[in-house]
C-alpha cells in the first residue's frame, strides 16, 4: 500500500484548501493505512486553538481534526521554522498532537512518502 502525505500550506480561512485537504485525508484514511499530515508555511495556522472564523462568515471545521484518530491518521508533522517565522510559540497547545520538525527534517520525512497531495 502506498504511503500518502497531505501537505497543508495555506491559512485555514479565506480559501477552502484546508477543509478540502482534511476531507481528502479522511476519505483516503478509509483506504490506506499509512497517511501523514504535514503543516508548513501558512498551513501551520490550521492547528491554532481558539479560531473565530464566524467573524468572517467562514465555516468552522477545526473540530474535524479531532476525528483523525478514528481513521488511524496519527502521523502529523508541523514545521518549526514556519511557526517561528510567523511569530507563533513552538510550545503552544494545538488542535492535534504533532511532531515538530525543522524544515530539513520535515523535507526528509516528506520524501519517504509515495504520494504527496498539497492543499
Describe, in plain words, how this protein is organized in 3D:
- With about 120 residues, the chain is α/β, with parallel strands linked by helices.
- The protein contains 3 helices and 5 strands.
- The protein has helices at about 15-30, 80-85, 105-110, and strands at about 5-10, 35-40, 75-80, 100, 115-119.
- It has a 5-stranded parallel β-sheet.
- Strand 3, helix 2 and strand 4 form a beta-alpha-beta unit.
- It is globular, with a radius of gyration of 13 Å.
Features:
single chain, 119 residues, alpha/beta, five-stranded parallel sheet, 3 helices
Q: Quick summary of this structure?
A:
With 119 residues, this protein is of the alpha/beta class. It has three helices and five strands.
